[in-house]
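[agent] plan:
  1. take the single chain provided in the ticket
  2. run structure prediction with default settings
  3. attach C-alpha cells to the ticket
  4. add a short note for the reviewer (M.T.)
[agent] executing step 1
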Amino acid sequence: MRITVVGLGKIGLPLAVQFARSGHTVFGADASQKVVDLVNSGNEPFPGEAHLGEYLAGVVSNGGLTALTDTADAVSKSDAVVIVVPLFVDDEARPDFGLLDSATDDIARGLRAENSTLVVYETTLPVGTTRTRWKPRLEESSGLQEGKDFHLVFSPERVLTGRVFEDLRKYPKLIGAMTEFGSARATNFYEQVLDFDERPDLERGNGVWDLGSPEAAEMAKLAETTYRDVNIGLANQFGIFAAENGIDVYKVIEASNSQPYSHIHRPGIAVGGHCIPVYPRLYLWNDPAATVVRAAREANLAMPGYTVKLAEAAAGGSLRGMRVVVLGAAYRGGVKETAFSGVFATVEALREGGAQVFVHDPMYSEDELREFGWEPFALGDSADIAILQADHDLYRDLSVDDLPGVSVVVDGRGVLRAERFSGVSFLVVGRSFESRRS
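[agent] step 2 finished; step 3 output follows
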C-alpha cells in the first residue's frame, strides 16, 4: 500500500515508521520543514522513544519512508491516510480544531475518487466529531462522497510515549467506520500494518476490534482515559484523608487491590501528559453534567498546591526565603515532555509562598530549563526543601548527600527511600505520617 501519515509528532512518526517496516510505501506529512528535514536524514526529531532512532534510519535508507510538507500531494498518491494532528483544549473544555481543520482541508485537496482512499483519524476527538465535522468538511472541500469515493474511519491511538512500538502490539486496535465497507477496509488496513501479541486474557482476542460506529470508537478512547483520571482523583482523596489520620494509604490500596474488583491507582503530586488531563475535558464538552468527571479533574488539579502545603507545614509554616528545588520538570519519568506537567503549578505555588525556587531534570539542559523561566539546580547544590515531581530513574537512588542542607523532602511519586534521608523531615504524598498501630 501507499500510506500517508499526517503529523510526524511523538505518535505519528512512530506510526509512519511502523507502517514502513511492514513493507509499505509511506509518506510522512508535517507542517514543520525542520521535522521533515530531520526525518529525511534518518534522524529522530525528539528523544526518548524506544527503538525509533534505529527503525527510522532503516526505513529512510531503504526508501520506505519519505517526509514532505505538501500534504495534498502525498494524499493524492495514497491508498490510505492516517491523521495524528494535535487537538488542543482550553480550561473550559473547549476544543480548538484549528490545526485539524487545516490538515483536513489539505487532505481533501489531495483526495482522488479513483483511489477510493481510506481516511482514518487517530487523534482523540469529542464524540460525534468524525461524523458531524470531518465527513461534511471532507466532502465539501473535495467534491467527493464519503462511502463511495473515500471511506472515513475513526481509530484512536492507544499508545504511551516512550513505548509506542510495544503498545502497538499489545492493545487491540479499535475502529469505528461510517459504513460496513469502510469497516472492512480499515480492518484489512490495520491487519496489514500491525502485528498483535497473543492476549489470552482477552475473551475476544487481540487484533482489530470493530466497535460499529465512529461515535463508539471516539467514546472508547475518552472512557479509558477519563477512567484513569477519575481513579487517580479518588486515590488522591483517599491519600489526603489517610495522611490526616495516620494511615498508610499505600498499604490500604495494596490490600484493596488484592480483591479482583478493586483497581485503585496511586496518589501523586500531579496528573500530566497529553492524554489524562485533556481527554476528560473533551468528554465534559459532550457531557457537561458529568459531575464525577468534573470533581476528579478538580481534585487532581489541586494536588500540586496540596503538596506544597505539606512542605510548608513541615518547614514550620512558612517558605519565605527558603531554597526549594523541584525535582523533575517532565510530566512523568523517562520522558522529555512538559505537557500539563505538575511542575508549573508546583513552581507557581512555591513562588506565591515566597520561596526561592529551582528546578532540576536530568533530561533538560540548564539553558532549556531557563527557557521555561526557571532557575536550574544541580545535584550537590544546597537546598532547604526538595519536592519530587517526576519519577525519573535517577531520582530513585537520591540521598541527603545529593541535597546538602535539606531539612524537608516531599516525595510526590512515592519512589524515594526514606532511609536515605536520615535526620530529614521526609513526607510522601498519601503517606505523610507514620501509620498508627493499635
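[agent] step 4 note for reviewer: DSSP finds 15 helices and 16 strands in the chain.
[agent] ticket updated
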